[in-house]
Amino acid sequence: MIAKVEKQSNDIDLIKIDNEETKIVFSNYGARIVSWKFDDNLIVLGNVVEADEFYFENPFKFGATVGRYGGRIANATFELDGKTYELPKNDGENNLHGGPNGLDDRFFDYEIKEQVGQIQIVFKTQIKNKDDYFPGDIQLEVIHTYDVNHRWTIEYKATASETTLFNPMNHVYFNLNRDNKVVDNHFISSEALKMYPLAENNIVTDTTPIDLINVYESDKVQLKDIFESDYPEIKQQMAQFGGLDHPFDIHNGYMTIENDHFMLSVETDMPNVVMFTFNHPKSWESDFNIYKPHSGFTLETQCMPNDINLYGDQASSILKANSPFYSKTVFQINEK
Ligand code: G6D
């Protein structure tokens, strides 16, 4: 395996890893994945010319590291250790994805480590309270590793100067179709597929999930059958949001997504996975925007969005001062 760096305009670096059958590209802008190809088949959404102004303008966070808090915080406010924090409202009344100065919009320092059978890129940055108005500063490493078995591993290592919230994730969109048709033909599968319904402001209020395995009497469900469901609660959610934008509980952090050609697995130590099926791309008026609803799907492995306002001091996203944070998510692609 070899890695090479291409310096683009706008201070963007592309780190290109070639594993013959598969090729993957990362960038220092947002510590993001820019491309992942199996032979000539692009399995993630990204810009064909890779990381030009497309990524600065793209409001959908393609492939970006998102944080310090992935997802929404209702009314852009929360209480922690008896103190109330007010955050920027960058999504209606809510704070979304760490606010306007989130991790997706910053340049990371990085180091490339060529190891036996794998290449590791260690991205580093510091999130300061004055950047995003969450308590404390966070020293963060985002480690992307790609190995000879076509496995992409993301690790987050962080320490905070004060007790704070930390809920990082990667906002990659997958599309396994060779012709890049919409992802309605993909199947999701896990031994648990529990989908939390959203209120109209995209916030979970009802912590009783819909058990898709019960509804479909199967642990393998086609996205099309969710989008077109007649099951009342699912039908109402699809009418409201145009597709999935929902947190899931899955079994032991493991699920697969497949079409007739590829099998993608995801394995994570984070408690939830948010699946977003890119429901309203037209909101981005740009020549770069070649996308239509359901052009891709995300697998945002993270804590439940808005967990601090749902679960208070039991929220999984609370990171104690000077206590090391570690999380790992692995994406594996295989041809059937
Ligand atoms: C929309 O509601 C969705 C989010 O879930 C997604 O992360 C964002 O677009 C990019 O706001």
UniProtKB/TrEMBL annotation:
<dbReference type="Pfam" id="PF01263">
    <property type="entry name" value="Aldose_epim"/>
</dbReference>
<dbReference type="GO" id="GO:0016853">
    <property type="term" value="F:isomerase activity"/>
</dbReference>
<dbReference type="InterPro" id="IPR047215">
    <property type="entry name" value="Galactose_mutarotase-like"/>
</dbReference>
<dbReference type="InterPro" id="IPR014718">
    <property type="entry name" value="GH-type_carb-bd"/>
</dbReference>
<dbReference type="InterPro" id="IPR008183">
    <property type="entry name" value="Aldose_1/G6P_1-epimerase"/>
</dbReference>
<comment type="similarity">
    <text>Belongs to the aldose epimerase family.</text>
</comment>
<dbReference type="InterPro" id="IPR011013">
    <property type="entry name" value="Gal_mutarotase_sf_dom"/>
</dbReference>
<keyword id="KW-0413">Isomerase</keyword>
<keyword id="KW-0119">Carbohydrate metabolism</keyword>
<protein>
    <submittedName>
        <fullName>Aldose epimerase family protein</fullName>
        <ecNumber>5.1.3.-</ecNumber>
    </submittedName>
</protein>
